[in-house]
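In response to the reviewer comment on reproducibility (Comment 2.3), we provide here a single inverse folding case reported in full, input and output, so that an independent group could reproduce the run without further information from us. The C-alpha coordinates appear first.
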Protein backbone atom coordinates (compact mmCIF):
# COMPACT_ATOMS: atom_id res chain seq x y z
CA UNK A 1 0.00 0.00 0.00
CA UNK A 2 1.18 3.59 -0.63
CA UNK A 3 2.07 5.60 2.45
CA UNK A 4 -0.42 8.09 3.84
CA UNK A 5 0.07 11.70 4.79
CA UNK A 6 0.21 12.22 8.54
CA UNK A 7 -0.50 15.96 8.53
CA UNK A 8 -3.61 17.43 10.08
CA UNK A 9 -4.11 20.19 7.55
CA UNK A 10 -5.86 20.27 4.17
CA UNK A 11 -5.23 17.07 2.32
CA UNK A 12 -4.51 15.11 5.50
CA UNK A 13 -4.85 11.39 4.99
CA UNK A 14 -4.37 11.55 1.21
CA UNK A 15 -1.93 9.13 -0.44
CA UNK A 16 1.48 10.77 -0.56
CA UNK A 17 3.82 10.41 -3.54
CA UNK A 18 6.83 8.26 -2.82
CA UNK A 19 10.29 8.10 -4.30
CA UNK A 20 10.36 5.98 -7.46
CA UNK A 21 6.58 6.05 -7.88
CA UNK A 22 6.65 8.35 -10.91
CA UNK A 23 7.16 5.81 -13.66
CA UNK A 24 4.83 5.87 -16.69
CA UNK A 25 3.24 2.64 -17.80
CA UNK A 26 5.55 0.20 -19.55
CA UNK A 27 4.44 -1.18 -22.92
CA UNK A 28 1.79 -3.83 -22.31
CA UNK A 29 1.80 -3.28 -18.53
CA UNK A 30 -1.93 -2.51 -18.40
CA UNK A 31 -4.87 -3.73 -20.46
CA UNK A 32 -7.94 -1.88 -21.70
CA UNK A 33 -10.97 -2.11 -19.45
CA UNK A 34 -13.38 -4.54 -21.07
CA UNK A 35 -17.06 -4.29 -20.16
CA UNK A 36 -18.53 -6.93 -22.43
CA UNK A 37 -18.12 -5.48 -25.93
CA UNK A 38 -17.20 -2.03 -24.60
CA UNK A 39 -13.42 -1.49 -24.62
CA UNK A 40 -12.08 1.48 -22.63
CA UNK A 41 -8.53 2.82 -22.98
CA UNK A 42 -7.02 4.09 -20.85
CA UNK A 43 -8.84 2.16 -18.08
CA UNK A 44 -10.09 5.38 -16.51
CA UNK A 45 -13.67 6.24 -15.54
CA UNK A 46 -15.04 9.64 -14.52
CA UNK A 47 -16.95 9.07 -11.29
CA UNK A 48 -20.63 9.99 -11.36
CA UNK A 49 -21.02 12.99 -9.02
CA UNK A 50 -24.24 14.85 -8.25
CA UNK A 51 -24.20 18.42 -9.52
CA UNK A 52 -20.86 17.79 -11.27
CA UNK A 53 -20.88 15.23 -14.07
CA UNK A 54 -23.50 16.84 -16.26
CA UNK A 55 -23.00 16.85 -20.02
CA UNK A 56 -21.00 20.13 -20.10
CA UNK A 57 -18.34 18.77 -17.73
CA UNK A 58 -18.30 15.32 -19.31
CA UNK A 59 -17.75 16.83 -22.75
CA UNK A 60 -14.88 18.95 -21.44
CA UNK A 61 -13.19 15.98 -19.76
CA UNK A 62 -13.64 13.84 -22.87
CA UNK A 63 -11.79 16.39 -25.00
CA UNK A 64 -8.79 16.17 -22.69
CA UNK A 65 -8.47 12.39 -22.78
CA UNK A 66 -10.06 9.08 -23.64
CA UNK A 67 -11.92 6.97 -21.12
CA UNK A 68 -15.45 6.43 -19.88
CA UNK A 69 -17.46 9.42 -18.64
CA UNK A 70 -20.47 8.57 -16.50
CA UNK A 71 -23.48 10.81 -15.93
CA UNK A 72 -24.47 11.94 -12.50
CA UNK A 73 -26.98 9.74 -10.69
CA UNK A 74 -30.37 9.56 -12.42
CA UNK A 75 -33.30 8.24 -10.39
CA UNK A 76 -35.46 5.59 -12.00
CA UNK A 77 -38.60 7.04 -10.45
CA UNK A 78 -37.91 10.56 -11.70
CA UNK A 79 -36.95 9.31 -15.17
CA UNK A 80 -40.06 7.18 -15.52
CA UNK A 81 -42.29 10.05 -14.36
CA UNK A 82 -40.77 12.34 -16.97
CA UNK A 83 -39.30 14.80 -14.45
CA UNK A 84 -37.83 17.67 -16.46
CA UNK A 85 -34.53 17.95 -14.56
CA UNK A 86 -34.08 14.19 -14.47
CA UNK A 87 -34.61 13.87 -18.20
CA UNK A 88 -32.27 16.78 -18.90
CA UNK A 89 -29.47 15.30 -16.78
CA UNK A 90 -29.93 11.92 -18.45
CA UNK A 91 -29.85 13.40 -21.93
CA UNK A 92 -26.91 13.05 -24.27
CA UNK A 93 -26.23 14.43 -27.78
CA UNK A 94 -25.43 11.97 -30.56
CA UNK A 95 -21.70 12.73 -30.43
CA UNK A 96 -21.32 11.48 -26.85
CA UNK A 97 -19.96 7.98 -27.33
CA UNK A 98 -19.79 5.80 -25.44
CA UNK A 99 -22.84 7.04 -23.58
CA UNK A 100 -22.71 6.05 -19.92
CA UNK A 101 -25.53 6.62 -17.41
CA UNK A 102 -25.59 5.99 -13.69
CA UNK A 103 -29.01 5.11 -12.31
CA UNK A 104 -30.51 4.83 -8.87
CA UNK A 105 -33.55 2.90 -7.77
CA UNK A 106 -34.63 0.42 -5.12
CA UNK A 107 -37.47 -1.28 -7.02
CA UNK A 108 -36.47 -3.94 -9.59
CA UNK A 109 -39.50 -3.12 -11.77
CA UNK A 110 -38.54 0.54 -12.01
CA UNK A 111 -34.94 -0.24 -12.85
CA UNK A 112 -35.87 -2.82 -15.45
CA UNK A 113 -38.20 -0.41 -17.22
CA UNK A 114 -35.71 2.44 -17.04
CA UNK A 115 -32.78 0.39 -18.36
CA UNK A 116 -34.87 -0.89 -21.23
CA UNK A 117 -35.70 2.72 -22.13
CA UNK A 118 -32.08 3.87 -21.87
CA UNK A 119 -30.92 1.02 -24.08
CA UNK A 120 -33.60 1.92 -26.64
CA UNK A 121 -32.24 5.48 -26.58
CA UNK A 122 -28.74 4.21 -27.35
CA UNK A 123 -27.01 3.97 -23.96
CA UNK A 124 -23.75 2.02 -24.19
CA UNK A 125 -23.28 1.41 -20.46
CA UNK A 126 -25.44 1.65 -17.34
CA UNK A 127 -24.09 1.80 -13.78
CA UNK A 128 -26.14 1.13 -10.64
CA UNK A 129 -25.52 3.39 -7.64
CA UNK A 130 -25.43 1.29 -4.48
CA UNK A 131 -23.00 3.54 -2.64
CA UNK A 132 -24.81 6.82 -1.98
CA UNK A 133 -24.21 7.71 1.71
CA UNK A 134 -26.59 10.68 1.93
CA UNK A 135 -28.88 10.37 5.01
CA UNK A 136 -32.06 11.19 3.05
CA UNK A 137 -31.25 8.10 0.94
CA UNK A 138 -29.98 5.61 3.53
CA UNK A 139 -32.69 6.33 6.09
CA UNK A 140 -35.15 5.01 3.49
CA UNK A 141 -33.05 1.88 3.02
CA UNK A 142 -31.53 2.97 -0.29
CA UNK A 143 -28.07 3.73 -1.62
CA UNK A 144 -25.25 2.27 0.48
CA UNK A 145 -27.84 0.56 2.71
CA UNK A 146 -28.99 -1.80 -0.07
CA UNK A 147 -25.88 -4.08 0.00
CA UNK A 148 -26.85 -4.90 3.59
CA UNK A 149 -29.60 -6.97 1.94
CA UNK A 150 -27.87 -9.19 -0.64
CA UNK A 151 -31.11 -10.76 -1.88
CA UNK A 152 -32.57 -7.34 -2.68
CA UNK A 153 -29.32 -6.30 -4.34
CA UNK A 154 -29.47 -9.47 -6.44
CA UNK A 155 -33.01 -8.67 -7.59
CA UNK A 156 -32.01 -5.15 -8.65
CA UNK A 157 -28.99 -6.25 -10.67
CA UNK A 158 -30.81 -9.19 -12.26
CA UNK A 159 -33.62 -6.91 -13.42
CA UNK A 160 -31.16 -4.50 -15.02
CA UNK A 161 -29.15 -7.23 -16.70
CA UNK A 162 -32.34 -8.76 -18.06
CA UNK A 163 -33.40 -5.46 -19.60
CA UNK A 164 -29.97 -4.46 -20.88
CA UNK A 165 -29.32 -7.30 -23.30
CA UNK A 166 -25.77 -6.84 -24.62
CA UNK A 167 -25.28 -3.47 -22.90
CA UNK A 168 -22.99 -3.86 -19.86
CA UNK A 169 -24.38 -3.26 -16.38
CA UNK A 170 -21.94 -2.31 -13.65
CA UNK A 171 -22.40 -1.65 -9.94
CA UNK A 172 -20.73 0.94 -7.69
CA UNK A 173 -20.56 0.36 -3.93
CA UNK A 174 -18.76 1.51 -0.82
CA UNK A 175 -16.87 -0.68 1.63
CA UNK A 176 -19.91 -0.82 3.83
CA UNK A 177 -21.85 1.16 6.40
CA UNK A 178 -18.91 1.48 8.79
CA UNK A 179 -15.92 -0.63 9.80
CA UNK A 180 -18.21 -2.94 11.78
CA UNK A 181 -20.62 -3.46 8.87
CA UNK A 182 -18.53 -4.16 5.76
CA UNK A 183 -20.62 -5.20 2.78
CA UNK A 184 -18.26 -5.11 -0.20
CA UNK A 185 -17.32 -8.85 -0.18
CA UNK A 186 -21.00 -9.87 -0.41
CA UNK A 187 -21.62 -7.11 -2.93
CA UNK A 188 -18.86 -8.41 -5.18
CA UNK A 189 -20.20 -11.94 -5.01
CA UNK A 190 -23.76 -10.86 -5.79
CA UNK A 191 -22.70 -8.60 -8.66
CA UNK A 192 -20.76 -11.44 -10.25
CA UNK A 193 -23.50 -14.03 -9.76
CA UNK A 194 -26.19 -11.78 -11.25
CA UNK A 195 -24.30 -10.93 -14.40
CA UNK A 196 -22.79 -7.50 -13.74
CA UNK A 197 -19.93 -6.69 -16.11
CA UNK A 198 -17.83 -5.07 -13.37
CA UNK A 199 -17.98 -3.67 -9.85
CA UNK A 200 -16.59 -0.32 -8.70
CA UNK A 201 -15.51 0.08 -5.09
CA UNK A 202 -15.22 3.47 -3.41
CA UNK A 203 -12.81 2.36 -0.72
CA UNK A 204 -14.44 4.28 2.11
CA UNK A 205 -17.45 3.44 4.25
CA UNK A 206 -20.69 5.39 4.19
CA UNK A 207 -19.82 6.64 7.69
CA UNK A 208 -16.55 8.09 6.39
CA UNK A 209 -18.25 10.07 3.63
CA UNK A 210 -15.12 11.58 2.00
CA UNK A 211 -12.91 11.82 5.08
CA UNK A 212 -9.58 10.14 5.69
CA UNK A 213 -7.63 7.89 3.37
CA UNK A 214 -9.24 5.45 0.98
CA UNK A 215 -8.52 1.84 1.92
CA UNK A 216 -6.78 0.48 -1.16
CA UNK A 217 -6.30 -2.84 0.65
CA UNK A 218 -10.07 -3.34 0.31
CA UNK A 219 -9.81 -2.88 -3.46
CA UNK A 220 -7.07 -5.52 -3.58
CA UNK A 221 -9.14 -7.87 -1.42
CA UNK A 222 -12.18 -7.51 -3.67
CA UNK A 223 -10.06 -8.10 -6.76
CA UNK A 224 -8.82 -11.37 -5.24
CA UNK A 225 -12.38 -12.54 -4.55
CA UNK A 226 -14.13 -12.01 -7.90
CA UNK A 227 -13.40 -12.73 -11.54
CA UNK A 228 -15.30 -9.76 -13.02
CA UNK A 229 -13.34 -6.51 -13.46
CA UNK A 230 -12.87 -4.39 -10.32
CA UNK A 231 -12.64 -0.60 -10.55
CA UNK A 232 -10.92 1.21 -7.69
CA UNK A 233 -12.16 4.56 -6.46
CA UNK A 234 -10.59 6.85 -3.87
CA UNK A 235 -7.60 9.20 -3.62
CA UNK A 236 -6.67 9.51 -7.29
CA UNK A 237 -5.43 13.09 -7.21
CA UNK A 238 -2.65 12.85 -9.79
CA UNK A 239 -2.03 10.62 -12.79
CA UNK A 240 0.65 8.77 -10.82
CA UNK A 241 -1.96 7.75 -8.23
CA UNK A 242 -3.89 5.83 -10.86
CA UNK A 243 -0.82 3.82 -11.82
CA UNK A 244 0.03 3.17 -8.17
CA UNK A 245 -3.50 1.96 -7.49
CA UNK A 246 -3.45 -0.52 -10.37
CA UNK A 247 0.06 -1.70 -9.50
CA UNK A 248 -0.64 -2.17 -5.79
CA UNK A 249 -4.16 -3.62 -5.96
CA UNK A 250 -4.12 -5.34 -9.39
CA UNK A 251 -7.56 -3.83 -10.07
CA UNK A 252 -8.70 -3.40 -13.66
CA UNK A 253 -9.38 0.32 -13.81
CA UNK A 254 -9.62 3.49 -11.78
CA UNK A 255 -12.57 5.76 -11.05
CA UNK A 256 -11.60 9.43 -10.75
CA UNK A 257 -13.79 11.61 -8.55
CA UNK A 258 -12.90 14.73 -6.56
CA UNK A 259 -9.37 14.87 -7.97
CA UNK A 260 -10.70 16.22 -11.28
CA UNK A 261 -12.91 18.98 -9.86
CA UNK A 262 -11.67 22.15 -11.49
CA UNK A 263 -8.96 20.05 -13.19
CA UNK A 264 -10.43 18.38 -16.31
CA UNK A 265 -6.92 18.30 -17.80
CA UNK A 266 -6.19 15.48 -15.33
CA UNK A 267 -7.65 13.13 -17.97
CA UNK A 268 -5.00 14.28 -20.47
CA UNK A 269 -2.33 13.50 -17.89
CA UNK A 270 -3.89 10.09 -17.24
CA UNK A 271 -3.94 9.26 -20.94
CA UNK A 272 -0.29 10.28 -21.22
CA UNK A 273 1.04 8.15 -18.35
CA UNK A 274 -0.97 5.11 -19.45
CA UNK A 275 0.53 5.54 -22.92
CA UNK A 276 4.03 5.51 -21.42
CA UNK A 277 4.72 9.26 -21.46
CA UNK A 278 5.39 11.80 -18.75
CA UNK A 279 2.41 14.11 -18.22
CA UNK A 280 2.34 17.71 -19.35
CA UNK A 281 2.92 20.28 -16.60
CA UNK A 282 -0.23 21.77 -15.04
CA UNK A 283 -1.61 24.85 -16.82
CA UNK A 284 -0.84 28.42 -15.83
CA UNK A 285 -3.55 30.57 -14.29
CA UNK A 286 -4.22 32.16 -17.68
CA UNK A 287 -4.72 28.73 -19.22
CA UNK A 288 -6.96 27.71 -16.30
CA UNK A 289 -9.06 30.84 -16.83
CA UNK A 290 -9.49 29.97 -20.52
CA UNK A 291 -10.68 26.46 -19.60
CA UNK A 292 -13.04 27.94 -17.02
CA UNK A 293 -14.53 30.29 -19.62
CA UNK A 294 -15.00 27.34 -21.98
CA UNK A 295 -16.73 25.39 -19.21
CA UNK A 296 -18.97 28.37 -18.51
CA UNK A 297 -20.07 28.61 -22.15
CA UNK A 298 -20.94 24.92 -22.18
CA UNK A 299 -23.00 25.23 -18.99
CA UNK A 300 -24.85 28.25 -20.39
CA UNK A 301 -25.58 26.44 -23.66
CA UNK A 302 -26.94 23.38 -21.85
CA UNK A 303 -28.87 24.90 -18.93
CA UNK A 304 -29.44 28.46 -20.16
CA UNK A 305 -27.20 31.34 -19.10
CA UNK A 306 -28.91 32.10 -15.78
CA UNK A 307 -28.90 28.52 -14.47
CA UNK A 308 -25.59 27.71 -16.08
CA UNK A 309 -23.81 30.60 -14.37
CA UNK A 310 -25.40 29.73 -11.03
CA UNK A 311 -24.00 26.23 -11.41
CA UNK A 312 -20.65 27.72 -12.38
CA UNK A 313 -20.11 29.46 -9.03
CA UNK A 314 -18.75 26.38 -7.27
CA UNK A 315 -16.52 25.65 -10.24
CA UNK A 316 -14.81 29.05 -10.01
CA UNK A 317 -13.66 28.15 -6.50
CA UNK A 318 -12.48 24.71 -7.60
CA UNK A 319 -10.56 25.96 -10.66
CA UNK A 320 -8.74 28.69 -8.73
CA UNK A 321 -7.99 26.71 -5.56
CA UNK A 322 -4.51 27.52 -4.27
CA UNK A 323 -3.79 30.46 -6.56
CA UNK A 324 -2.96 33.84 -5.04
CA UNK A 325 -6.07 35.87 -4.30
CA UNK A 326 -8.43 32.93 -4.79
CA UNK A 327 -10.12 33.57 -1.43
CA UNK A 328 -11.03 37.10 -2.52
CA UNK A 329 -12.26 35.72 -5.83
CA UNK A 330 -14.53 33.22 -4.08
CA UNK A 331 -15.93 35.97 -1.89
CA UNK A 332 -17.14 37.75 -5.03
CA UNK A 333 -19.10 34.81 -6.42
CA UNK A 334 -22.42 36.13 -5.10
CA UNK A 335 -22.28 38.79 -7.83
CA UNK A 336 -21.73 36.27 -10.61
CA UNK A 337 -24.89 36.19 -12.77
CA UNK A 338 -23.78 36.37 -16.42
CA UNK A 339 -20.89 35.30 -18.63
CA UNK A 340 -19.87 38.96 -18.79
CA UNK A 341 -19.65 38.99 -14.97
CA UNK A 342 -17.29 36.03 -15.22
CA UNK A 343 -15.01 37.82 -17.67
CA UNK A 344 -14.85 40.83 -15.33
CA UNK A 345 -14.15 38.55 -12.36
CA UNK A 346 -11.24 36.86 -14.11
CA UNK A 347 -9.79 40.02 -15.67
CA UNK A 348 -7.69 40.84 -12.61
CA UNK A 349 -5.87 37.51 -12.49
CA UNK A 350 -2.20 37.15 -13.35
CA UNK A 351 -2.21 34.89 -16.43
CA UNK A 352 1.47 33.98 -15.92
CA UNK A 353 1.03 32.61 -12.39
CA UNK A 354 2.08 28.98 -12.29
CA UNK A 355 -0.15 26.24 -10.94
CA UNK A 356 0.52 25.82 -7.19
CA UNK A 357 1.94 22.30 -6.61
CA UNK A 358 0.38 22.14 -3.15
CA UNK A 359 -3.09 22.42 -4.71
CA UNK A 360 -2.73 19.12 -6.57
CA UNK A 361 -3.59 17.01 -3.53
CA UNK A 362 -6.07 19.26 -1.76
CA UNK A 363 -9.73 18.25 -1.89
CA UNK A 364 -11.91 20.72 -3.74
CA UNK A 365 -15.20 19.53 -2.27
CA UNK A 366 -16.84 17.52 0.49
CA UNK A 367 -15.11 18.39 3.75
CA UNK A 368 -13.53 15.98 6.19
CA UNK A 369 -16.55 15.29 8.35
CA UNK A 370 -17.87 11.81 9.11
CA UNK A 371 -21.36 10.67 10.04
CA UNK A 372 -23.41 8.08 11.81
CA UNK A 373 -25.33 6.40 9.01
CA UNK A 374 -29.11 6.63 9.24
CA UNK A 375 -30.96 3.35 8.56
CA UNK A 376 -34.66 2.47 8.80
CA UNK A 377 -35.83 1.08 12.13
CA UNK A 378 -35.23 -2.67 12.31
CA UNK A 379 -33.33 -2.71 8.99
CA UNK A 380 -30.45 -4.83 10.31
CA UNK A 381 -32.81 -7.45 11.71
CA UNK A 382 -34.25 -8.16 8.24
CA UNK A 383 -31.17 -8.60 6.07
CA UNK A 384 -32.63 -11.60 4.22
CA UNK A 385 -35.64 -9.55 3.15
CA UNK A 386 -35.71 -8.69 -0.56
CA UNK A 387 -38.67 -6.31 -0.38
CA UNK A 388 -37.86 -2.96 -2.06
CA UNK A 389 -37.81 -0.08 0.45
CA UNK A 390 -40.12 2.89 -0.12
CA UNK A 391 -38.56 5.76 -2.06
CA UNK A 392 -41.07 8.31 -0.89
CA UNK A 393 -41.36 10.02 -4.27
CA UNK A 394 -38.27 12.10 -3.49
CA UNK A 395 -36.65 13.82 -6.46
CA UNK A 396 -33.13 12.87 -5.50
CA UNK A 397 -31.41 14.72 -8.34
CA UNK A 398 -32.77 18.05 -7.14
CA UNK A 399 -32.28 17.17 -3.47
CA UNK A 400 -28.66 16.10 -3.86
CA UNK A 401 -27.74 19.07 -6.03
CA UNK A 402 -29.19 21.45 -3.48
CA UNK A 403 -27.09 19.82 -0.77
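Designed residues, in position order:
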Amino acid sequence: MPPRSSSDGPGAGLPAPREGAHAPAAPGEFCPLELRALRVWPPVVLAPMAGVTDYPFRSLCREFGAGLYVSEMITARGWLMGNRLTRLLASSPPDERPRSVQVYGSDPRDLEQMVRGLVDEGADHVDLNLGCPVPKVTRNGGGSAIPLKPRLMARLIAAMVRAAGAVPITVKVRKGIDENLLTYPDAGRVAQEEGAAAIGLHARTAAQLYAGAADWDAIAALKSQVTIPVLGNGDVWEAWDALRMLRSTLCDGVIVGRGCLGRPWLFRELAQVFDGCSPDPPPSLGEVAAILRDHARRLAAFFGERQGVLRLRKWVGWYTKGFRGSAVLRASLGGLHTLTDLDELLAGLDPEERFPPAALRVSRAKGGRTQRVALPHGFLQQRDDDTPPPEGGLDLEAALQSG
